[in-house]
Amino acid sequence: MSSGRVLLSTGTLYGALQRLMGDGWIERVQEEDAPRDRRTYRLTSRGRRILQMEIERMRHLTKVAALRIARKEA
Amino acid sequence: MTSSIYAWLLFLYPGSYRQEFGEEMRSVFGEARSDLRQTLPAKLRFYFREFCGLLRGALYAHFDRLFGPVIPFRRFHMQPRFRFPHSAVVLMCLILAGVVLAIEKAKTVVQMNEGLPAGTAPAWHPLFWLYPLAAALAVGAVAWGILFALKRTGMHRLANLQTSHEQH
User: Is the pLDDT of residue B88 over 50?
Assistant: First the structure.
């Protein structure tokens, strides 16, 4: 997904997953044919809503950053 | 060999955490290891990252279990809209406690002055001069709390900016 730019250790990854599950942003999906040590996670409706807000926030930040650069170049 | 060391290191985590994620973590670790480039620097980087990640993750898991989620999980701790620092909550509780204490003290002073004969000068509480000082400190603390929260959020800076789309 990040083309190798972000490398996560399993400790960091599962710490984040636990926090996201605790906040109710993601949930586990039990797939019947999946092996026992392989779990799937998906966004909850709350998580999807928060992700959408985060995307909007980042979009706003990039707009502001672009505006600042344009002002400096002008 | 490394799998068994990894399994052993998982005992650094709280039991409930290990029960919930341990097997999955071992599986993901094994998969990441099999995808690893077979050069010494790549291996060293991988094992170092995993070791540090496990130590940090175990530490956070123990803190979470003991004190609740008080440590922000770095970049993954996304806080949309408004970031409300925990220190501001502590500060607000302290201010509330100060206000309640001041009210109680004021009630005591009023009760002391009730029932005095006419013409008697009211008996002030010996530490009455502390109240204006406490009030000034409370106001200062509130102002500091607001500024601190604004500094942490950066909202005061963003609020003054407009995007090019908004300007047109």
Answer: yes
Establish whether this prediction's ipTM goes over 0.90. no
User: Positive or negative CA dihedral for B46, B3, A1, B83?
Assistant: negative
CB contact under 8 A, B76 and A63: no
How much of chain A exceeds pLDDT 90, in percent?
A: 58
- One-character DSSP codes across B5-18: HHHHHGGGS-HHHH
Q: Could you state, in order of their start, the residue ranges of all structural domains in chain B? A: 2-76, 86-167
A63–B53 C-beta distance less than 8 A: no
Q: Which helix (H) or strand (E) holds B163?
A: none
Which of B53, B69, B76 lies closest to A11 in CB terms? Answer: B53
Residue B52 and residue A36: Cβ atoms within 8 Å?
no
A66 inside 8 A of chain B by CB: yes
Q: Which pLDDT does position B156 carry in this prediction? A: 52
- CATH T-level assignment (fold) for domain A10-73: Arc Repressor Mutant, subunit A (1.10.10)
Residue B92 has pLDDT above 90, yes or no: no
